[in-house]
Amino acid sequence: MLAFPPKRTRRSIVSYLIEExxxxxxxxxxxxxxxxxxxxxxxxxxxxxxLRVSELTGLTCSxxxxxxxxxxxxxxxxxxxxxxxxxxxxRAILQSWLDERAGGPTDAxxxxxxxxxxxxxxxxxxxxxxxxTASLTCASLxxxxxxxxxxxxxxxxxxxxxxxxxxxIALWLGHEDIRTTHGTYLHADLATKEKALALTAPxxxxxxxxKPDDELITFLEGL
Length: 223
Prior knowledge:
- By secondary structure, this protein is mostly helical.
- The chain has a domain at about 20-165: hpI Integrase, Chain A, CATH 1.10.443.10.
- It is about 50% helix and about 5% strand.
- It contains ten helices and three strands, in the order αααβββααααααα.
- Strands 1-2-3 form a three-stranded antiparallel beta sheet, with no helix packed on it.
- β1 (about 65) and β2 form a beta hairpin.
- α1 crosses α5, α2 crosses α6 and α6 packs antiparallel against α7 (about 165-175).
- It starts with 18 loop residues before the first helix and ends with a helix.
Protein backbone atom coordinates (compact mmCIF):
# COMPACT_ATOMS: atom_id res chain seq x y z
CA MET A 1 0.00 0.00 0.00
CA LEU A 2 2.84 2.40 0.80
CA ALA A 3 4.11 2.00 -2.76
CA PHE A 4 1.00 3.66 -4.20
CA PRO A 5 1.74 7.28 -5.17
CA PRO A 6 -0.30 9.90 -3.30
CA LYS A 7 -3.28 11.45 -5.03
CA ARG A 8 -2.47 14.66 -6.83
CA THR A 9 -4.46 17.60 -5.54
CA ARG A 10 -4.79 21.17 -6.71
CA ARG A 11 -2.68 23.59 -4.66
CA SER A 12 -3.81 27.21 -4.78
CA ILE A 13 -1.43 30.13 -4.30
CA VAL A 14 -1.94 31.59 -0.84
CA SER A 15 -3.64 34.94 -0.37
CA TYR A 16 -1.91 37.56 1.77
CA LEU A 17 -1.96 41.27 2.57
CA ILE A 18 0.62 43.76 1.36
CA GLU A 19 1.97 46.52 3.62
CA GLU A 20 -0.66 49.11 2.64
CA UNK A 21 -3.47 46.66 3.30
CA UNK A 22 -2.07 45.68 6.68
CA UNK A 23 -1.78 49.34 7.69
CA UNK A 24 -5.38 49.99 6.63
CA UNK A 25 -6.60 46.96 8.59
CA UNK A 26 -4.76 48.00 11.74
CA UNK A 27 -6.23 51.50 11.47
CA UNK A 28 -9.79 50.17 11.19
CA UNK A 29 -10.66 49.41 14.87
CA UNK A 30 -12.08 52.32 16.85
CA UNK A 31 -9.44 52.64 19.54
CA UNK A 32 -11.55 55.06 21.56
CA UNK A 33 -13.56 52.00 22.68
CA UNK A 34 -12.46 48.99 24.74
CA UNK A 35 -13.40 46.49 22.04
CA UNK A 36 -11.49 48.51 19.43
CA UNK A 37 -8.32 48.51 21.54
CA UNK A 38 -8.67 44.76 22.04
CA UNK A 39 -9.15 44.14 18.33
CA UNK A 40 -6.23 46.37 17.39
CA UNK A 41 -3.90 44.50 19.77
CA UNK A 42 -5.13 41.15 18.47
CA UNK A 43 -4.70 42.06 14.80
CA UNK A 44 -1.27 43.56 15.41
CA UNK A 45 -0.11 40.45 17.26
CA UNK A 46 -1.50 38.16 14.54
CA UNK A 47 0.22 40.06 11.73
CA UNK A 48 3.56 40.22 13.55
CA UNK A 49 3.77 36.69 14.94
CA UNK A 50 1.79 34.65 12.40
CA LEU A 51 0.05 32.70 15.16
CA ARG A 52 -2.74 30.35 14.16
CA VAL A 53 -6.21 31.48 15.23
CA SER A 54 -6.35 28.66 17.80
CA GLU A 55 -3.02 29.86 19.22
CA LEU A 56 -4.29 33.45 19.41
CA THR A 57 -7.49 32.53 21.22
CA GLY A 58 -5.56 30.21 23.54
CA LEU A 59 -3.17 32.91 24.79
CA THR A 60 -3.29 33.89 28.44
CA CYS A 61 -2.05 37.10 30.02
CA SER A 62 1.06 35.32 31.30
CA UNK A 63 1.98 34.22 27.75
CA UNK A 64 3.07 37.79 26.96
CA UNK A 65 6.56 38.42 28.34
CA UNK A 66 7.47 42.10 28.08
CA UNK A 67 10.77 42.26 29.94
CA UNK A 68 14.18 41.99 28.32
CA UNK A 69 13.80 39.98 25.12
CA UNK A 70 10.04 40.61 24.87
CA UNK A 71 8.20 37.70 23.29
CA UNK A 72 4.96 35.75 23.16
CA UNK A 73 4.83 32.13 24.29
CA UNK A 74 2.31 29.75 22.78
CA UNK A 75 1.49 26.07 22.50
CA UNK A 76 0.85 25.08 18.90
CA UNK A 77 0.03 21.93 16.97
CA UNK A 78 1.01 18.71 18.68
CA UNK A 79 1.29 20.61 21.97
CA UNK A 80 4.63 22.00 20.83
CA UNK A 81 5.74 25.17 22.57
CA UNK A 82 7.47 28.05 20.80
CA UNK A 83 8.33 31.68 21.46
CA UNK A 84 8.18 34.58 18.99
CA UNK A 85 9.94 37.91 19.56
CA UNK A 86 8.05 41.20 19.63
CA UNK A 87 9.00 44.56 18.17
CA UNK A 88 9.24 47.62 20.42
CA UNK A 89 6.02 49.13 19.00
CA UNK A 90 4.07 45.93 19.55
CA ARG A 91 5.46 45.60 23.04
CA ALA A 92 4.11 49.06 23.92
CA ILE A 93 0.64 48.26 22.54
CA LEU A 94 0.47 44.97 24.43
CA GLN A 95 1.69 46.56 27.65
CA SER A 96 -1.10 49.13 27.42
CA TRP A 97 -3.63 46.39 26.69
CA LEU A 98 -2.46 44.21 29.59
CA ASP A 99 -2.73 47.17 31.96
CA GLU A 100 -6.29 47.80 30.79
CA ARG A 101 -7.18 44.11 30.67
CA ALA A 102 -6.06 43.68 34.30
CA GLY A 103 -6.45 39.92 34.10
CA GLY A 104 -4.84 37.14 36.09
CA PRO A 105 -1.99 35.01 34.72
CA THR A 106 -4.35 32.29 33.47
CA ASP A 107 -7.06 34.63 32.13
CA ALA A 108 -7.60 34.89 28.37
CA UNK A 109 -5.49 37.62 26.79
CA UNK A 110 -8.29 38.54 24.39
CA UNK A 111 -11.64 37.98 26.10
CA UNK A 112 -15.10 38.39 24.66
CA UNK A 113 -17.75 40.71 26.14
CA UNK A 114 -18.53 38.18 28.91
CA UNK A 115 -14.91 37.63 29.82
CA UNK A 116 -14.60 34.25 28.14
CA UNK A 117 -12.08 33.39 25.45
CA UNK A 118 -12.88 34.52 21.95
CA UNK A 119 -13.93 31.67 19.68
CA UNK A 120 -12.64 31.04 16.17
CA UNK A 121 -15.91 32.39 14.83
CA UNK A 122 -15.55 35.44 17.05
CA UNK A 123 -12.15 36.23 15.56
CA UNK A 124 -13.50 35.65 12.05
CA UNK A 125 -16.43 38.00 12.63
CA UNK A 126 -14.31 40.81 14.08
CA UNK A 127 -11.87 40.44 11.18
CA UNK A 128 -14.70 40.66 8.63
CA UNK A 129 -16.01 43.78 10.35
CA UNK A 130 -12.67 45.56 10.29
CA UNK A 131 -11.89 44.46 6.73
CA UNK A 132 -15.16 46.07 5.63
CA THR A 133 -14.15 49.30 7.35
CA ALA A 134 -10.59 49.22 5.99
CA SER A 135 -11.91 48.60 2.45
CA LEU A 136 -13.30 52.13 2.44
CA THR A 137 -9.77 53.53 2.41
CA CYS A 138 -7.95 50.60 0.77
CA ALA A 139 -10.05 49.31 -2.14
CA SER A 140 -7.84 46.28 -2.83
CA LEU A 141 -9.03 44.67 0.42
CA UNK A 142 -12.52 44.31 -1.06
CA UNK A 143 -11.14 42.07 -3.82
CA UNK A 144 -9.67 39.49 -1.42
CA UNK A 145 -11.18 36.70 0.66
CA UNK A 146 -9.61 37.44 4.05
CA UNK A 147 -9.76 34.88 6.84
CA UNK A 148 -7.75 34.74 10.07
CA UNK A 149 -5.31 32.37 8.34
CA UNK A 150 -4.59 35.06 5.73
CA UNK A 151 -3.05 37.12 8.54
CA UNK A 152 -0.65 34.22 9.16
CA UNK A 153 0.23 34.12 5.45
CA UNK A 154 0.74 37.90 5.51
CA UNK A 155 3.26 37.61 8.33
CA UNK A 156 5.22 34.95 6.46
CA UNK A 157 5.23 36.87 3.18
CA UNK A 158 6.38 40.07 4.90
CA UNK A 159 9.30 38.17 6.43
CA UNK A 160 10.04 36.72 3.00
CA UNK A 161 10.00 40.15 1.32
CA UNK A 162 12.49 41.43 3.90
CA UNK A 163 14.95 38.67 3.04
CA UNK A 164 14.34 36.25 5.91
CA UNK A 165 15.30 32.72 4.89
CA UNK A 166 12.71 29.95 4.69
CA UNK A 167 14.22 27.95 7.56
CA UNK A 168 13.74 30.89 9.93
CA ILE A 169 10.20 31.46 8.65
CA ALA A 170 9.43 27.80 9.31
CA LEU A 171 10.61 28.20 12.91
CA TRP A 172 8.65 31.44 13.23
CA LEU A 173 5.40 29.81 12.12
CA GLY A 174 5.95 26.54 13.95
CA HIS A 175 6.16 24.36 10.82
CA GLU A 176 7.55 20.94 11.61
CA ASP A 177 8.75 20.39 8.04
CA ILE A 178 10.48 23.19 6.09
CA ARG A 179 8.99 21.72 2.90
CA THR A 180 5.64 23.09 4.05
CA THR A 181 7.09 26.60 4.20
CA HIS A 182 8.98 26.18 0.93
CA GLY A 183 5.98 24.88 -1.00
CA THR A 184 3.58 27.49 0.36
CA TYR A 185 5.45 30.78 0.37
CA LEU A 186 8.18 30.45 -2.23
CA HIS A 187 5.54 29.84 -4.93
CA ALA A 188 3.62 32.94 -3.79
CA ASP A 189 6.67 35.20 -3.82
CA LEU A 190 6.33 37.02 -7.15
CA ALA A 191 9.28 39.33 -6.39
CA THR A 192 11.69 36.37 -6.31
CA LYS A 193 10.36 35.15 -9.65
CA GLU A 194 10.70 38.61 -11.18
CA LYS A 195 14.34 38.76 -10.08
CA ALA A 196 14.94 35.41 -11.76
CA LEU A 197 13.21 36.69 -14.90
CA ALA A 198 15.40 39.80 -14.92
CA LEU A 199 18.48 37.59 -15.04
CA THR A 200 17.28 36.19 -18.38
CA ALA A 201 16.73 39.60 -19.99
CA PRO A 202 18.54 40.18 -23.31
CA UNK A 203 21.75 42.28 -23.21
CA UNK A 204 21.36 46.07 -23.13
CA UNK A 205 17.81 45.71 -21.80
CA UNK A 206 16.76 47.61 -18.71
CA UNK A 207 15.74 45.36 -15.82
CA UNK A 208 12.26 45.52 -14.32
CA UNK A 209 8.76 45.79 -15.73
CA UNK A 210 8.01 47.95 -18.75
CA LYS A 211 6.40 51.29 -17.89
CA PRO A 212 4.82 53.22 -20.76
CA ASP A 213 5.47 56.95 -20.92
CA ASP A 214 2.76 59.56 -20.43
CA GLU A 215 2.26 60.13 -24.16
CA LEU A 216 1.53 56.46 -24.78
CA ILE A 217 -0.91 56.33 -21.84
CA THR A 218 -2.70 59.43 -23.15
CA PHE A 219 -2.94 57.88 -26.63
CA LEU A 220 -4.29 54.59 -25.30
CA GLU A 221 -6.85 56.27 -23.07
CA GLY A 222 -8.09 58.27 -26.07
CA LEU A 223 -8.85 55.20 -28.17
